[in-house]
Write a structure and sequence with these properties.
481 residues; alpha/beta; TIM Barrel; M1 Pyruvate Kinase, Domain 3; Pyruvate Kinase, Chain: A, domain 1; 3 domains; eight-stranded parallel β-barrel; six-stranded mixed sheet; 23% strand
Length: 481
């Protein structure tokens, strides 16, 4: 199935999308990657969804990527004797480690790491930032605060600490168990939550041992500050705007999103824009115009993928939400302004032979009647370099490695094809031509660009480019050997 767009769609699975018929409908509506949210559902439930995805993959004959999203540490207050309390602006409130039921002036916060990291004047946010407090003084087992924004505080509400880097690992004990389960199951991507520093990514990579690619979720102010280092250690990025919008002033999130997307593009690493993209479609068959504009903005920025969360996992209209995203993407990419914006934002430092090859492939495709750029790859790196160029023709990724194909399902503009092992460049050209024709990208009268590396089947050897006719007779006539 050929997508009529370049940006990819990530759909989260959940109670509303756990059976074969619904997941198949999501795929046919446009989902390229399925997200398993490890914060919800048992391992048995996640395995059942994974098995359905792989069955659909077999039935449709196309690779499908699976992303397991790890929960990360969850910081929550304890419980209240009355279940909830009303806090007013200006009142004093204490967090402590006593474990006693909370009252109107205190509650347990069972995270000594927070008290150790706090400083006077730091901000504590409760219940997604609806309640805000300023830390006046603190010790190893308490923090005395002044309420700056009041509201209802109730049992086990989440706490955010935006002003400090917390001495917490990104991986909790649950995350480590979930990571191993997901890798054994065979997921293609691992999304790492609560990333604050590059060391968090290295820890996850060591545990994954190459079995899955690592995608870092940028959702903490500390991660924004350390973005360049985190990006270097990651295989991909997710702009997780939900927590960013809680811990940072909401008006700063759009420019941060733009900077994160452009940084990932420049590094040739896939980037997902996520959170509340079509939030109203949880309960409505139609999105708001503001939501459609939000999705369109991410696409105009050149994001590799846009993501649905509760819309497809728990909403009443999961298939309609995917179809809406697909329609928005196709409409944006048909807009001449889209190409102007994409080309204006192409700022790449080209330093290697592979960089030069993929840039030449894009320039040839733009100046002549080329129908596709076909890349032979082992790890997917060359394909990601071509995608960084954002060419105006489709990118065909050909490889003998199924895991590489699945990971590339997340990358902008890429159509994945499983190829037979080859050891000569002419064989590669013939294989690329056949794939372009059979997948509906070209006819015998057309031409394609083929990139590959010689010697074959060696990582990092992209060093050759050819403009090839899609008529095999012409290939053999020009190169009988």
């Amino acid at each position: 199935m050929r997508r009529l767009r370049s940006v990819k769609i990530v759909a989260t699975l959940g109670p509303a999308s756990s059976d074969y018929a619904t997941i198949r409908a999501l795929y046919e509506a446009g989902a390229d990657v399925f997200r398993l949210n490890m914060s919800h559902g048992s391992h048995d439930e996640q395995r059942a969804r994974y098995d359905i995805i792989r069955q659909i993959e077999k039935d449709v004959g196309r690779p499908i990527a699976v992303l397991a999203d790890l929960q990360g540490p969850k910081l929550r207050v304890g419980t209240f004797g009355s279940g909830s309390e009303e806090l007013t602006e200006g009142q004093r409130f204490r967090f402590d480690l006593t474990g006693d039921p909370g009252k109107g002036d205190r509650v347990t916060l069972p995270h000594p790491e927070i008290f150790a990291a706090l400083e006077p004047g730091a901000t504590l946010l409760v219940n997604d930032g609806k309640i805000r407090m300023r830390v006046d003084q603190h010790g190893p087992d308490f923090a005395d605060c002044t309420v700056t924004t009041g509201g209802t505080i109730s049992n086990r509400k989440g706490v955010n600490v935006p002003d400090v880097v917390l001495p917490l690992a990104a991986l909790s004990d649950k995350d480590r168990t979930d990571l191993e389960f997901a890798c054994q199951m065979g997921v293609d991507w691992l999304a790492l939550s609560f990333v604050q520093r590059a060391e968090d990514v290295r820890e996850a990579r060591a545990l994954a041992r190459g079995r899955a690619a690592i995608l870092s979720k940028i959702e903490k102010p500390a991660a924004v500050k350390a973005y360049d280092e985190i990006l270097r250690e990651s295989d991909g990025i997710m702009v997780a705007r939900g927590d960013l919008g809680v811990e940072l002033p909401v008006y700063t999130v759009p420019p941060i999103q733009k900077r994160l997307v452009r940084g990932a593009r420049a590094a040739a690493k896939p980037v997902i824009v996520a959170t509340q993209m079509l939030e109203s479609m949880i309960e409505s068959p139609m999105p708001t115009r503001a939501e459609v504009s939000d999705v369109a903005t991410a696409i105009y920025e050149g994001a590799d993928a846009v993501m649905l969360s509760a819309e497809s996992a728990a909403g009443q209209y999961p298939v309609e939400a995917v179809a809406t995203m697909d329609n928005v993407a196709r409409s944006v990419e048909r807009d001449p302004t889209y190409r102007d914006i994409i080309e204006a934002s192409r700022k790449v430092k080209r330093q290697t032979v592979a960089d030069a090859i993929v840039a030449a492939a894009r320039e040839i495709a733009e100046s002549t009647d080329i129908k596709a750029i076909c890349c032979f790859t082992q790890t997917g790196t060359t394909v990601q370099l071509v995608a960084r160029e954002r060419p105006h023709v489709p990118i065909l990724a050909l490889t003998t490695v199924p895991q590489t194909l699945r990971r590339l399902c997340l990358v902008w503009g890429v159509h994945c094809v499983l190829a037979e092992r080859i050891d000569r460049f002419k064989s590669a050209v013939v294989s690329a031509v056949r794939a372009a024709r059979s997948e509906g990208f070209a006819t015998e009268a057309d031409q394609i660009v083929v990139t590959a590396g010689v010697p074959f089947n060696v990582k990092g050897t992209t060093n050759i480019l050819r403009v090839a006719p899609c008529d095999e007779r012409l290939i053999y006539a020009s190169d009988p050997e």
